[in-house]
Specification:
The chain has 14 helices and 17 strands. It has 484 residues and is α/β, with parallel strands linked by helices.
Length: 484
């Protein structure tokens, strides 16, 4: 597939341009240098072109070395370099260094002069002419100015790759038409890795991918954005989402970290399976439980990955697992997987765990089966009475998957205590073998069909009612006379 990589100094607008081209807000954007650190991929031009966003080169950032490595990897994949510069800053020394690096690479390069708002185009062109790149484009990524012309230039420069791709797709389609056993691709499983800073989420992502895709640095807050990474393993498609570490609310600093938390919460909503990564040497701490609460509220399948397991002494491991089990007592159905992302220990087993959790999120049970299970549970342990009246649960039916949701009908269901609802949840989970997923019970009280309606009296009833009224009037009249 035709591939273009966005490169340049920090804060020249690469991520803003990425969002403008992909027509979404995938990349985190703020007026902060060095915001982007990991490679981000997107599709443009009806999916024919892959676009790679990269971190800033030559910035004042402790991650400068690893960011340069990420840019090098992006350039290895690229057919075209989109070198983004800042029209307001003009040509800086770092731009000269980047120009020299790109000339050594010998890749086709389009110089994208961004932030031209309010500037004379002739002056801008003259300022950057000394860089001696034949192809250039004047744009304002934030305002959309010059984007149509820029898009045409992009397609023209990638025309050979686009033509080759079209031929390859046509050949694949012909082969598919001739094949007898072609199957449609299965459902993609979205997996989000969440956790506190510096617990090893990006290291685990790289280990799962088998490549150094995410920036890994021995410092909290290395990952700042939620990065979507499509991949295929065997016949199964996945979407891995590496997220920024989330600290306690009172310790978040600055707008960037706050937006990173928002992106992490959005990733939880988009995922079907959550891998909550914790540090084995620290155990399951309060902030881990807060993140677990977000995942539970979203109704996602969950596994607890106890990372850095190799750092825990052998005789201490049993105690660590016992403490985790104790703190997970309210959600004992969550599977626990001790791993070492750095060494790869136990990581391979996560794929089977993810697929099993994903299968568990699909509720495959009939109304008859759910009702029979409900009757068995009520017989074994009935719900309590409310003000002397028993709660009656009559039948159940499936409502949704991801999370498995069951609707139970009866009377006085609003008075069912939480403890009994958990009894039903656990009963259904065990009977239906729902693995690694919360089970949600929705109660519905049957409406009285005669509520608000008065019975229509027959003619005989009306005559009888009239006689009773006359009789009472005569009786009351006689009583008043007798009192006188």
């Amino acid at each position: 597939m035709a591939t273009a990589a966005l490169v340049g100094r920090p804060n020249v607008g690469k991520s803003t341009l990425f969002n403008r081209l992909t027509q979404q807000r995938a990349a985190l954007v703020a007026d902060v240098p060095g915001l982007t650190r990991d490679r981000r991929y997107g599709r443009i031009d009806d999916g024919r072109i892959t676009l790679i966003d990269t971190g800033g080169l030559h910035g004042d950032d402790p991650f400068a070395g690893v960011l340069a490595q990420q840019v090098e990897l992006a350039l290895d994949e690229a057919d075209l370099v989109l070198w983004v510069v800042d029209a307001r800053d003009g040509v800086l020394a770092d731009d000269e260094d980047i120009a020299a690096m790109l000339r050594r690479r010998g890749l086709p390069t389009l110089l994208v002069i961004n932030k031209i708002d309010g500037l004379a185009e002739a002056d801008v062109i003259a300022e950057f002419a000394g860089l001696a790149f034949a192809e250039s484009a004047l744009v304002s990524a934030s305002q959309g100015r010059g984007m149509a012309t820029f898009g045409e230039q992009l397609r023209d420069l990638l025309a050979p790759q686009l033509a080759a791709e079209a031929e390859a797709r046509a050949a694949e389609d012909a082969d598919a038409d001739d094949a007898d056993d072609v199957n449609a691709p299965g459902e993609r499983i979205a997996v989000a890795l969440i956790g506190r800073p510096n617990v090893g989420k990006s290291t685990l992502t790289n280990r799962l991918l088998g490549e150094e895709r995410q920036v890994v640095f021995d410092a909290p807050g290395t990952t700042r954005d939620a990065i979507d990474i499509p991949m295929t393993r065997g016949a199964q498609r996945y979407l891995l989402i590496d997220t920024a570490g989330v600290r306690r609310k009172g310790r978040t600093e600055g707008i960037v970290e706050k937006f990173s938390v928002v992106k992490t919460l959005d990733a939880i909503e988009r995922a079907q399976v959550i891998l909550l990564v914790i540090d084995a040497s620290e155990g399951l701490v309060e902030q881990d439980l807060h993140l677990l609460g977000y995942a539970l509220d979203a109704g996602r399948g969950i596994a607890l990955c106890v990372n850095k397991w190799d750092a825990v002494a052998g005789d201490e491991r049993a105690a660590v697992l016992r403490e985790i089990d104790r703190r997970l007592g309210f959600a004992g159905w969550i599977p626990v997987a001790p791993i070492s992302a750095q060494k790869g220990t136990g990581v391979g087993k996560l794929w089977g765990l993810v697929r099993r959790i994903h299968r568990g999120g699909a509720l495959q049970a009939s109304s008859r089966q759910l009702t029979t299970l409900l009757e068995n549970m009520v017989t074994a342990h009935g719900p309590p009475s409310v003000r002397g009246r028993p709660i009656k649960l009559r039948f159940a039916h499936p409502s949704a998957s991801y999370p498995p949701t069951i609707t139970v009908h009866g009377n006085q269901t609003a008075s069912v205590p939480d403890s009994y609802m958990r009894f039903l949840e656990n009963g259904y989970r065990n009977a239906l073998k729902i693995f690694g997923n919360p089970v949600r019970i929705r109660f519905k009280t049957g409406d009285n069909p005669y509520a608000g309606r008065s019975n229509a009296l027959s003619d005989r009833q009306k005559r009888r009612r009239g006689r009773m009224i006359e009789h009472r009037k005569k009786r009351d009249k006689q009583r008043r006379k007798s009192r006188r």
